[in-house]
Queue: 2 jobs
Job 1
Amino acid sequence: MPHVATSQQTQRELTVLFVGSPSVDLQEACDSERTRPVNIEVATDGRAAIQRLVAASESPTKYSQPDLVLLRCDFELPDGMTVLHAIKSSPRLRATPVVVLDPDDTNIEQTYRAGGNAHVSTPETTEEYVDLVRSITRFWFGWAQYPAESLYSDT
Amino acid sequence: MTDSHTRETPVVPDSLLDSVSLISKKWHPAIVRCLSDTSGQGFSDLERRLDGVSAKVLTDALEQLQEYEIIERREISQSPLRVNYTLTERGKELDAVIESLADWGETHLADPESEQVVLVADDNTRINTMHTAWLEDGYTVRTASDGEETLRNLDTDVGVIVLDRRMPGLSGEEVLDWIRSQQYDIRVVMVTSEDVDFDLLDMRFDEYLTKPVRQDELRSVVADLFERRDYSTGLQEYLGLKSKIGLLRAEYSDATLENHDLYQRLRSRVDELEASDETFDGVDAETLERTAIGSPQ
């Protein structure tokens, strides 16, 4: 069974951008279970997410470009699907994996059509969040091969 | 009755298949075009003009064209051997067919990617409809009525955006920041009803129009911006800065501008770009002349 590969360990901290309002303290949840350093940042709505992504492109020394985006579709203007489209059509970000959490499960097909990498059901309890973040980061940062260079230091 | 049916020409006669097969070869039509309007060409002339052809392939193609009596080979001298190829009468007829095929291709098969897409974004429906109508005959126009819709309509097909500066929700300025930070190859004309102010200094638009915008003004700016897409990034930046500086110079006194730090920094950036050979590298004289309008100082 594949484990989080030691050869892929990097000194750089990986950044996960969570867009939306998580119902628990995500960083804490991740700290308790993380298998490698993962920095979780939260942008509470679409506008904040766009601003955060602009900032990462404009001042890369101050703000890191996210290695993965968790997009919880519970905000408006711009809504989750607009943010997903913006990331997936951006020449700079299109290779960044985006995992959509959608409390209403209404956007499943739309997510994949827009190039979303996965649509998963939304966690509610701290335990479920920990479980989700652990699985997703283990999958994307440990198991998956992905063209985004930033994910692995040795490829 | 039945007789005439059996003698009816098939939909694809052999004669058509033969012609198509002849001109679908890679070098045959090229050789015919090379010999068109010349008094003849030698082997080495053809070899040079048909960049990439090997001597063997060229020899074979020339032999085949002679067999069809499309070209004629004449020996000019024996030692050293020099030959001259010319088109025969039927070769000249074929040349005319190939030329019209080329024209047809240019008209109808032009690269579909060359479709020019303009995104018009304004929260005022009336203005949106008007600007769209003005551009529709020359471009594929997408319309958005707020910042969110603009984001949803944004992709790498879009070449030029006519962007309202103030829109509810995500503003034009925020959309512009997004476009620039994500390295879209999109030229932006900012449209606004507001007066020119120093906030403009931070905005990386390519052109700026004040409402009400006239039809000829919008059309000429959009056409100009599509042309700018082919320019180097240095020249694009230079032209964007020149447009910005022109706006501010029309609004503020020299004394005010001299004391403004950011303005001075833009000015030195313009001088820097002006001094760099790369900025105007490969730019034709006509473009240079056009861009020199409104030169600073």
Note: The CA atoms of residues 116 and 139 of chain B lie 5 Å apart.
Job 2
Amino acid sequence: MSVAALSAVEVAYLGRGAALGPFDLTVGEGEIVALVGPSGCGKSTALRLLAGLEAPTRGEVRRAAGRGETAVVFQAPTLAPWLTAEANVALPLELAGEVRREARSRARAALARVGLAEAAAARPAQLSGGMAMRASLARALVTNPKLLLLDEPFAALDEITRRRLADDLLAIWAERRPAIVFVTHNVEEAVYVAGRVVVMSAGPGRLAGETKVDASAPRTAGFRATPVFRATAEAVSEQLASAMGTAA
Amino acid sequence: MSRILAPAVLIGAILIVWEAATRVLSVPVYLLPSPSAIAGALAANAGLLAVSAWRTLATAMEALAVAAVFAGALALTTSLSRTLDAAIRPIAVALQVTPVIAIAPLFVIWAGVDHPERAVIALAAIVAFFPIFSGTARGLAAADPDLERLFDLYGATPLQRLARLKLPSALPFIVEGAKVAAGLSIIGAVVAEFVAGSGGEQGLAWRILEASNHLETAKVFAAILVLALMAAVVQVFFQWLERRALVWWRGR
């Protein structure tokens, strides 16, 4: 069963021309897919198609996830500065008509799940970059989505924080196994998090290669040092290099 | 420290030179009164000037409130559709660029001879209108596009989007517009009173006209001084209000 699928989708913007495709991608239930590609290849566009936030110019998007079952984490934490962390996380539930008390208590639980139980009353301006991103992740998880879409979520964070968040993401995935599509330009991060790494060519992005990561998930400690990890990362890097080469 | 000391020294120096020059050159008092003569006029007319200043301030704040209601409502309307925005904006801009003094006589006619104070409030409100309108309109369009997408994703209703996203996002812009409008409303109140008069509720503009007609130049200076002080206090108050509002909005 697939949660979402793009078949032969193309996206062209007025005045900017083709941004994506033709491109195919099928996301299976509980699968973690990483989308890697040079900047401007249409990774984020593909994500917005999967989210149903945008319609393709040509081709077809199939989504099994209904309203409230898809969640998106953007590159920036995208928290409302006037709301507390708790109110930010409760927002998806409150928009769906959930009573305030229930929404707030589920928001506190979601914050606790990402290690932010103490910060429920803090405003986004008082959170560090990593904490804000965790709050953003909690907001995405609060509805228990079937499909979780992440658009370069850790790009602005330092290496240690992004590694920690990658582990947290995998731990969260292990609990409820939502399908995850993860856009990144970091090959090692893609191989570490995903079960399948999809490489896109320079814009308008097409499929340039696909690699399965042959290892158990969640990852065991020291996975980055294993031969499997190194070999997979090398294979993906080569695909990416040739994908960028065709554009140059 | 030098932020207080430097202007104090400069003002002190100007006053000393001014005082000395008027005495040495024996400048006629109706032409340029000495600072001490102005201080005397200020003391002699303190009560009257205070009452007049209060009236001017009240007029300006009433005008600010009227402007806020109309500008807010109109900005909300223009935010609903591009067509409405395209239709309304040129009229709002035309109103902004027309000098208030040029349209004042019209308002005097419409308000009627018995109620010149209504014309003054309306004219000051027109002057204060534009910063609030443009600030609110800009703020309502300034929500984070990714937050907009999030509201799309969770199927927010138009009302939810307005109340939970657009209005809160607009708050800093609205407050900034109100701050600018507060200063303009005082200018508007004074200019309008010059043209329209003020009936029984005489403000500082009337004091200035009256004193200049009698060649009581020291009293003119005293009224201007009170006006400048009042405008400065209003400006500082609104700056403080803006800072408080931002702290409340952002949580720090």
Note: The interface with chain B takes residues 48, 51-53, 67-68, 70-72, 74, 76, 78, 80-84, 91-92, 94-96, 122-126, 143 of chain A (CB under 8 Å).
